[in-house]
Amino acid sequence: MPQRYSHDFRCMNFLNTEFLGNPLLEWGIALGWAVGGLIVGRLFYRWLSHRIKAAASKTASKLDDLIIDQVEEPIAMGVVILGLWFGYDHLHFGTGADAFMEKVFAIAVAFDITWLAARLVDSLIGNLLLSVSEKSDSKMVSQITPILQKTLRSTVWVLGVIMALNNSGYDVGALLAGVGIGGLALAMAAKDFVANIFGGVTVFVDKPFLVGDRVQLDGMDGTVQEIGIRSTRLMTLAGRMVTIPNHKFTDSIVENVTAEPARKIRLDLGLTYDTTPEQIERSIFILNEIVVKHVGTEDDTTIWFSGFGDFSLNVSAIYFVKKASDVCLTPGAINLEILRRFNEENLNFAFPTQTLIHEGEIGSAS
164 lies in a domain? Predict the structure, then answer.
């Protein structure tokens, strides 16, 4: 036998030598796939990080930069897993071991896909809420962003774990049943917390009030100082800070005083019964003149002779204080001017009086 053929024969014998039940040739091919996967994954990562990212940075949109930044590591990891899988496909360690490794690779693929999805969801939601926060006056967005990101990220990972277990042949239904019972107990314990969270989201979405608005709720009257994800703080008219759970704003009627276009004021005046009809007409004219001329009132004013009281002739007025005017000082100034003008016109205000006639006085008078 020629020396060259003898050398080739020895090489073939060496490559066919079994190690752990597999020829060295298959081990070499498997190693080649594994190393190749590592090299290609690394090169692919560098290509995404430099070439593609540089091209994306030249576009007007930031979305492509964001997506590339989040997918480069999971995609590179996927290439490595693929190389390891093709490499292992050349090796055989028995039915039990091969079945186990198939489950391992299935879990690895599910992990990589979940990692990719979680990074994308986390980044995209964070970027979206950041842009909304910059356009909004409320601090609610910045407060809810980390909670929403964690919730969505956790949801993606839970779904990924379920997918991995399902692909591995585990009974996911039984697992979900156990998790459901535990989740129900947890939900019952945390129902108030969750209700407050959803109440905060409702306040953020519906915007029934903003920071600085005066609101009335269940007997509380104050100015909104801070809107949080769990509670809202009001500064009452007495100067006290009150913390209200957010679920109250979904369960109760909230009156936004600041949102009113103008404050309605009703004024009732009682004149003595010796007031003449001409004086009643004069009082109506004076009231209308005072209210209409004041810079803090709207043009919509109604004044009328409202009726006969027990001890007075009543004149009533309804007017509206402008939103930009002080709702206390404006009526005060109008009332002061009414008192001044009525005194000048000898229009006398009535007040309750009683005349007592004693029986002895009646007899002597007769």
Answer: yes
Q: Is 23 found in the same domain as 61? A: yes
pTM for the predicted model, two decimal places: 0.46
pLDDT classification of 120: cutoffs 50, 70, 90: confident
* Tens-digit pLDDT profile for residues 227-272: 877 788 899 988 899 999 888 888 888 888 888 888 889 999 999 9
Range of the domain at 307: 262-344
If asked whether residues 227 and 304 sit together in one domain, one would say no
**Domain of residue 245, CATH code:** 2.30.30.60
Domain annotation covers residue 227:
yes
Distance CA 85, CA 89 (A): 6
Please report how the helices 140-167 and 172-189 are oriented relative to each other, as an axis angle in degrees rounded to 10. Answer: 150
Total domains present in the chain = 3
pLDDT tens for each residue of 74-114:
888 888 888 777 777 766 666 666 777 777 787 888 888 88
